[in-house]
Write the structure tokens for this entry.
Amino acid sequence: MARTKKDPLERAMGTDHVLVDVGTIAGVMTGAVAGAVAGGPGVIAGSAIGAAIGNVVGTFLDRQSHSEGAHERELDDAIGVTSGSISARDSVAATRSAQHARAEEHRKEIEHDLEESSDEHP
């Protein structure tokens, strides 16, 4: 998957994987608090286990976020939000063009009918 422009938060954080970082940090903090019950070694073990679990959860959330973002960009492109045009001016121009084409077709039908009637009545 090709990388797109980074959003401002990603630029500020200096990484494309903010959710992975946040998940890892949250896991370390939660593990340390849970491990504090067992003392110093529990804090260390809890931090390590929490970091691993937080990293996995953060990676999942990051991938989910990127796939949803890609899907949103595809939908925006399809309906003309990010490419093409959804402006009212263009739709009015298209409507006028269609009306002009119908009027021209109607004019040709009338001319044809007039020619036929003049051929029948010399």
User: Anything to note?
Assistant: The chain is about 80% helix and 0% strand.
